Amino acid sequence: MDLELTLPTTRAAASAEPDEDSVLFIGNATLLLRYGGFTILTDPTFVHRHEKVDLGYGMSSTRLTDPAMEIADLPPIDLVLLSHFHGDHFDQEAQAKLDRSLPVVTTPQARDALHELGFAQARGLDTWDRMTITKGDRRLVVTACPARHGPGVTDLVLPDVMGTVLEADQHTSVPKLYISGDTLMYDDLEAIPQRHPDLDVGFFHLGGTKVLGIMVTMDADQGVEAVRLIDPAIAIPIHYEDYDVFTSPLSDFTAAAREAGIGDRVRVLRRGDSYALDGAGR
User: Fold this and answer.
1) CATH number of domain containing 115
2) Is 277 a domain residue?
3) What domain range is 184 assigned to?
4) Could you tell me which of 168, 159, 48 has the C-alpha nearest to residue 110?
5) Burial (0-12, 13-18, 19+ Cβ within 10 Å), 19
6) Residue 80 β-bridge partners
7) Is residue 158 part of a domain?
8) Which of 17, 165, 240, 251 has the CB geometry, 3.0–4.6 Å to 143, for a possible disulfide?
């Protein structure tokens, strides 16, 4: 399905044009993307070290790191991109302090949860839906991609997840981006490089998250497998070491990537690091 979203003139005026396309890694899966004239916040989690977030079914996770910036320090945001509704991706700080008029592009399930919290502009995408977002003369295309949070039937009790491909429609020189969301490797991911064979930068949610002993996000080996499958020119690992449910550290992934012969395409961002997307990729 092709959907459209037009940002109001006031929001277009409020969001300053960046000098370059870039990404700032705030922590966990939270990125501040300046991309194609849009300012995008992904999977916002802003709780601090030692604070807990809700994982559902009475379970929680404790944060082990601090975010690189606070919500109050963010620039004007055009939209939020949310892979799924879990406490370590849209936490109590985001729920309390983000502007409820912000558009949030997410899964239909997460959209419904956000509507209940007062985020009336949340929009839901099914897998392979495309949303064209317009701001003045700028256009951004967001495509929802397959993702699955848990193995087998365990996925039925976990939130629906989407990966995304981002394309700045009006600027062919702007790299195409992929964000995996919290997924494990499974067969449906094979359609992503078939439909998008020319991805420039991929952000991969790692960490080897385990809940009740079951792995529900990619560990180092699956991360390497995903990079090989999706085949971006540049691979940036995120979603590692921030919460106590993570079991696979970043060092495992970088070592596995070197051993697999793809270490040269990995770019490691520490919390607070920025990476220029201009010229990144093929």
Assistant:
1) 3.60.15.10
2) no
3) 2-267
4) 159
5) exposed
6) 41, 104
7) yes
8) 165
Number of compact structural domains in the chain: 1
Computed on alpha carbons and rounded to an integer, the radius of gyration of the chain in Å comes to: 17
> CA-to-CA distance for 209 and 189, rounded, in angstroms?
19
Looking at residue 109, its amino acid is: Q
Q: Per residue in 172-229, pLDDT tens?
A: 578 999 999 999 999 999 999 999 999 999 999 999 999 888 899 999 999 999 999 9
CB 144 within 8 A of CB 127: yes
The pLDDT > 70 percentage for the chain reads 94
**Interaxial angle between packed helices 220-230 and 250-259, expressed in degrees from 0 to 180 and rounded to the nearest 10:** 50
Specify if 107 maps to a domain: yes
Residue with tokens 């039937």, as numbered in its chain: 153
Which residues partner with 39 through β-bridges?
A: 34
Token pair 């239909």 is found at 108
CA 277 – CA 87 distance, rounded (Å)? 29
pLDDT of residue 281: 63
Is 278 part of a structural domain of the chain?
no
